[in-house]
Design brief:
Chain lengths: 578, 213
């Protein structure tokens, strides 16, 4: 079968023409890599347009000049106007076929041979202006390399096809591997079909390796696509697979184990040779250029999988697919995440700190207001006592003395005057006593909380013209001073509020014990208020709350517009340790 | 008739001196003490006919001292002489067994009268307070029946929660009854106790110890 590719626009400007004669087809591995590199290098380096025509021998099927005769006829016809400027052969079959037949088609056209081992180049067939870019495949070198990387290897299964070309390589191999006879056993798989090869590599014993060389046609006569065949083998293989081409690295191959040449480089050199041929620069003596060896290339994942020590790799080896450290791969992400984390942590700490500070400030404020209330009460109590215990009594004494001035004038005028002074002093004493009482109710100590509440209620009832009912049983328990004072002050405040705002006619006050504390209830039948709608916070209520809070009590103010108000104040009575 | 023997208990010396001048012309002032404890001791030792005592005194106050003295002399006659014009003082004093209550501001006119009355076994209360004292005494309610007994157990529970500050709805959900039923209980209590509204119910509860100790 013969195929001829014609690029578009080829005739318009009459570009230089290059005929690329493939052995197996444009896309046939491994030559496709060389061909692709050749094309791109040619296009890149040439100053003028070059038309590359692909033609393909059906080399996999048969050989012989009679079979290929139609190809020659086709080429002759294709280039009937003018012969190609250069002919390039790709792969060993074309390298063998074309030089034998060039005189039948384009005798004057220079030839560039590539895609072959130098052993396939017929030096005698080369003419002036021709060139060859060839490799030197060193199979023993490859085996050396495998043994170096895996020193324990006792067996190497060698994958090879069974076409005439491959049989050549089998012959080469048998000859060249003789020196390994005592070192490692080479198992030739070229007599097996691909399926049989699969079974074999799947059951290889320990300390084995597989070398994937060339597989054009297997022993069953089935043409094989290189990549697909490799994939089928690698998926079952019990031993590491080595290949000749770096391109095959991602397909489950440990490495392209050198000494190897680069196909890219081979394609590029071939392109350079073609350009020289086009400009008639090739030396008169045909040149054979051997592609340099390249460093071996390994797949890091496969090395890990088979436990191969990286230190064993030949110096200068390239390792691919090694996962970059996390840091390299995600540096930006890690830095960003870390920054965000730190920022959030800082914010959090700041918030918590602020909260702690605020709470501390609140606690201090509360403690301060507590101390203020206490200090205020202490001051008032002291002043009240001074006034009551001393000043008022002295005034009474003075009043009595004034009335009974001994040996004085007994005239009615004098008696009246003394009486008047005495009365004034008495009045003064009463006023100061009242003042003292307002400052601090001495009745609280003299008669206790219940009587103090009664006294307060009677005072309010007198001055506000309200009925104030008191229901309070004697609290037999002795109350701590601050508890009694707290309840008393709350009652006083509540009664004062009622007097000022409530317009009430009846007030009820109850005092009882509840849950280990004192419960005070003060209610009125006055105007009440809407609890939510109190426009300014009542100072009276605030002071009640503050006093209650100081003693860990509870204050409950219930009111409704027109429904009166009830204030419930509960203060725990601290249990005195027995 | 021998002169009435009087013991004076007042912690204020200047005033006590003034009082002495009032008393000495008519009575036998057998001692002046300055605190409640000393008054109890002196009462035991001197056996006065009448004790004139302040209420606000160090150690024991006057009322406490009176209670102490009554333990060994139940018929002791004590007149309280005080700065306090509050009727609660007067009432408390009389309840404690005092036979007189005179405010200091009226001492000039009333103290001698009070001692005379006491000596004769009568009670003297400063006229300005007497009316109120009596009214207060009369006020003492004679409980005919225990009104708490007329409440059901459930009604008492409702009342207790009402005092705790719960709303009708909250009481309902706590007792697993409907708000309507709670209202019904409240209504029946109001009817039964003859009180008006929530506030009076709460006062009733506190007064009768339904809220618990």
């Amino acid at each position: 079968m013969v195929v001829l590719y014609a690029p578009f626009g080829a005739t318009a400007v009459k570009p230089k023409q290059v005929l690329l004669l493939h052995s197996f087809g444009r896309e046939f591995a491994p030559y496709n890599v060389i061909a692709a590199a050749f094309r791109s290098e040619l296009a890149k380096d040439s100053g003028e347009p070059i038309a590359v025509y692909d033609a393909t021998m059906d080399a996999g099927q048969a050989s012989g000049s009679d079979v290929q005769e139609p190809l020659l006829e086709l080429l002759r016809r294709r280039f009937s106007d003018s012969p190609p400027d250069v002919v390039v052969t790709m792969g060993p079959p074309a390298a063998a076929f074309y030089p034998q037949n060039r005189d039948k088609v384009f005798p004057a056209t220079p030839l560039v041979i590539t895609g072959v081992d130098e052993r396939f180049v017929l030096k005698s067939a080369l003419r002036a202006g021709d060139a060859a870019v060839a490799s030197h495949q060193s199979l023993p070198g490859v085996v050396d390399n495998i043994l170096r990387v895996l020193p324990d290897t006792q067996r190497i299964a060698l994958v090879l096809g069974n076409s005439p070309l491959e049989r050549f390589w089998a012959g080469e191999g048998h000859r060249q591997f003789a020196r390994f006879a005592n070192r490692v056993s080479i198992e030739w798989l070229n007599e097996l079909s691909l399926e049989q090869m699969r079974q074999r590599v799947a059951t290889l014993p320990a300390h084995s390796a597989v070398l994937y060389t060339i597989l054009l046609t297997d022993a069953a006569g089935v043409p094989q696509e290189r990549g697909a065949a490799l994939a089928r083998l690698s998926e079952v293989s019990a031993a590491p697979i080595f290949s000749l081409y770096e391109r095959e690295l991602p397909q489950g191959v440990v490495g392209s184990s050198g000494p190897l040449h680069s196909q890219q480089r081979e394609g590029a050199l071939a392109a350079a040779a073609v350009l020289r041929a086009l400009s008639r620069e090739n030396p008169a003596d045909p040149t054979i250029q051997i592609v340099d060896y390249e460093a071996s290339v390994y797949d890091w994942r496969e090395l890990k999988r088979w436990g191969i020590d990286l230190a064993r790799l030949p110096t200068g080896s390239e390792i691919r697919f090694q996962p970059r450290p996390l840091w390299d791969e995600h540096r930006t992400f890690i830095i960003t995440a870390l920054a965000i984390f730190l920022l959030q942590a800082a914010l959090l700490i700041a918030l918590v700190w602020q909260r702690i500070r605020r709470r501390r400030a609140e606690e201090e404020a509360l403690a301060l207001s507590g101390r203020l209330i206490t200090a205020h009460e202490d001051e008032r109590r002291w002043l009240a006592r001074e006034l009551h215990d001393d000043i008022t009594q002295r005034l009474v004494g003075a009043a009595i003395d004034a009335a009974n001035l001994p040996g004085s004038d007994q005239s009615p005028r004098a008696i009246d005057a003394r009486r008047s002074v005495s009365n004034t002093l008495m009045q003064l004493s009463e006023d100061i006593h009242d003042l003292s009482y307002q400052l601090h109710p001495s009745v609280l100590h003299d008669l206790g909380l219940v009587e103090a509440l009664r006294a307060e209620c009677e005072r309010v009832a007198r001055s506000e013209a309200m009925r104030v009912d008191v229901a309070a049983d004697d609290i037999s328990q002795s109350l701590p001073r601050e508890v009694a004072l707290c309840i008393y002050r709350i009652a006083q405040e509540a009664l004062r509020n009622i007097g000022r705002h409530a317009k009430a006619s009846i007030v009820q006050l109850s005092l009882g014990l509840k849950d280990g504390g004192l419960l005070l209830a003060v209610s009125d039948n006055g105007s009440g208020f809407e609890p939510g709608l109190q426009i300014r916070p009542s100072l009276g209520h605030a002071s009640m709350r503050e006093r209650i809070r100081l003693l860990d009590g509870k204050l409950d103010i219930r009111s409704s517009l027109g429904g009166g108000t009830i204030i419930l104040a509960w203060v725990p009575i601290p249990q005195v340790a027995a | 008739m021998s002169r009435v023997r009087v013991l004076l208990a007042d912690d204020h010396r200047i005033l006590a001196e003034g009082l002495r001048s009032l008393l000495v012309p008519e009575f036998d002032l057998i001692g002046v003490v300055e605190d409640g404890r000393a008054m109890v001791e002196a009462a035991k030792a001197l056996k006065p006919d009448v004790i004139i005592a302040d209420i606000s005194m160090p150690q024991l106050n006057g009322i406490e001292a009176l209670e102490e003295v009554r333990k060994f002399n139940p018929n002791v006659r004590v007149i309280f002489l005080t700065m306090h014009r509050d009727v609660v003082y007067a009432r408390r004093a009389l309840e404690a067994g005092a036979v007189g209550f005179v405010v200091k501001h009226a001492a000039l006119d009333e103290l001698v009268l009070a001692v005379r009355a006491a000596a004769q076994g009568r009670i003297f209360v400063t006229p300005a307070l007497a009316g109120e004292v009596l009214r207060g005494m009369k006020h003492d309610p004679l409980e005919t029946a225990d009104p708490v007994a007329s409440l059901t157990l459930r009604q008492r529970e409702v009342l207790r929660l009402l005092v705790d500050g719960l709303t009708t709805k909250e009481i309902g959900s706590k007792l697993h009854i409907s708000a309507r039923t709670v209202e019904d209980h409240k209504y029946r209590m109001v009817e039964c106790l003859g009180v008006k509204g929530n506030a009076e119910l709460i006062h009733f509860a506190i007064k009768h110890g339904i809220v618990g100790p």
